[in-house]
Design brief:
Elements lengths: L7 E9 L3 E6 L4 E5 L15 E6 L9 E9 L2 E4 L5 H10 L11 E8 L4 E8 L7 E8 L1 E4 L2 E4 L5 H15 L3 E8 L6 E4 L5 H12 L3 E9 L4 E6 L9
Parallel strand pairs: 3-5, 9-12, 11-13, 12-14
Antiparallel strand pairs: 1-2, 1-4, 2-3, 4-5, 5-6, 7-8, 8-9, 10-11, 14-15
Length: about 240
């Protein structure tokens, strides 16, 4: 996924009200940008961090800029826009990067399903040998220690709900897949954030035991483009 226009860079002053961030651009101008990520942005919202923003010319927008990327550590760029993971996964499926999801002829998005009034991110159909596949995508940005990404970065009742929905689809004979879209290149595995949301961690382990397939793919990120490239393992240590 290439950014359609060059991103503007600056320094983060503060992120607040979940949806807003004040940034000092390289030009010296101080602006307020929209933030699409409603999570805690653990480790990705430190004042002074270098950030990159897209700009819109639409007159109806209250805030012209959108926060896209942050340099969480030197030379470690993280993609924080939660509007992109579905698109990144679909691009990777079409490019045969995600081999586990190859062979499907139809791709639908935002299809209503389940018993808890949900919408599945991606519905794959038309495979010659496999049943329809329900794919839930989660954006991963947090790393609590070197090389280890975790999800979620805040308590996520919605995340647990989606796991329950996937378990129900697996029990009904469909494929049910959770994909962690890891928008940072400095990690080599993904773990449930048990210390942050123990309910999600337990539910994820239950989902794995119930036939839900869980994958993680890591992105290569630059101020010019984001591309899913490499599968990394999911590690779920035994709970004590």
């Amino acid at each position: 996924m290439k950014f359609p226009q060059a991103l503007e860079s600056g320094r983060l002053l503060t992120r607040y009200k979940r949806f807003l961030a004040d940034v000092e651009l390289d030009s010296g101008a101080i602006i307020t940008a929209a933030c699409s990520n409603t999570g805690s942005l653990l480790g990705c919202n430190l004042p002074g961090s270098r950030v990159w923003l897209s700009a819109s010319e639409r007159a109806t927008r209250k805030y012209r800029h959108t926060w896209e990327l942050v340099e969480a550590h030197p030379d470690v760029i993280v993609g924080i826009n939660t509007g992109y993971p579905n698109r990144l996964v679909i691009e990777a499926i079409k490019a045969n990067v995600i081999l586990e999801l190859s062979g499907y002829r139809e791709i639908k998005t935002e299809v209503r399903y389940g018993n808890e009034n949900s919408r599945i991110d991606i519905l794959l159909d038309g495979h010659r040998r496999k049943p329809p596949c329900y794919v839930e995508v989660k954006n991963v940005t947090a790393a609590v220690k070197k090389g280890v990404a975790v999800f979620p970065d805040a308590v996520s009742e919605r995340g647990s709900k989606h796991l329950r929905e996937l378990m129900a689809m697996a029990a009904a004979g469909f494929r049910a897949v959770l994909i962690f879209c890891v928008q940072r290149s400095d990690v080599h595995e993904v773990r449930p954030a048990d210390a942050i949301d123990p309910v999600y961690g337990k539910t994820l382990r239950h989902a794995l035991a119930s036939g839900v397939e869980v994958l993680a793919y890591r992105a290569v990120i630059s101020p010019h483009e984001i591309t899913l490239r490499e599968k990394i393992p999911i590690v779920c240590p035994e709970l004590k």
